[in-house]
Amino acid sequence: MKLLTLALAASCGLLLTACNDDSDDMVAPPVDNTVPASAQASTAAWTSYSAALPDSDMAESVDVNAATPPVSDTEEPRAI
Fold first, then answer.
1. Of 78, 56, 79, 53, which is closest to residue 67 (Cα–Cα)?
2. Cα 72 to Cα 14: distance, rounded to the nearest angstrom
3. Residue 40 CB-density burial (10 A; 0-12 exposed, 13-18 middle, 19+ buried)
4. Residue 60: what are its φ and ψ, rounded to 5°?
5. How far from chain centre, in Å, is Cα 17?
6. What is the pLDDT of residues 6-25, one digit of tens each?
7. Model pTM above 0.85
8. 55: left (phi over 0), alpha (psi -120 to 50) or beta
9. What is the DSSP code (8-state) at residue 23?
10. What is the CB-side half-sphere exposure of residue 9 using CA atoms within 13 A?
């Protein structure tokens, strides 16, 4: 009886081990908090990018030190 219980426990352990998905999908991607170059291509792209940023205070802040917002002398201001 003990041999049967031991064999059952060992086979269950092997089956559970075989079902393990050992991928690294749970690792969060690195946060890139810089403004992409595509957002600096035009005023429309800049407006779309800034409008898509989350409204949360808990979100990671965006480093805008190296970003230069595009300027147009002919386009009307856009609402965000």
1. 53
2. 66
3. middle
4. -65, 135
5. 30
6. 777 777 666 666 666 655 55
7. no
8. alpha
9. -
10. 6
What phi, psi does 28 have (nearest 5°)?
-70, 140
At position 45, the amino acid (one-letter code) is A
**Whole-number Å distance between alpha carbons of 67 and 60:** 17
Tokens for 8? 């059952």
Dihedral of CA atoms 28, 32, 37, 41 in degrees, nearest 10, equals: 80
* SS3 (DSSP) at 36: coil
Token digits of residue 5: 């219980």
Residue matched to tokens 């009886």 = 1
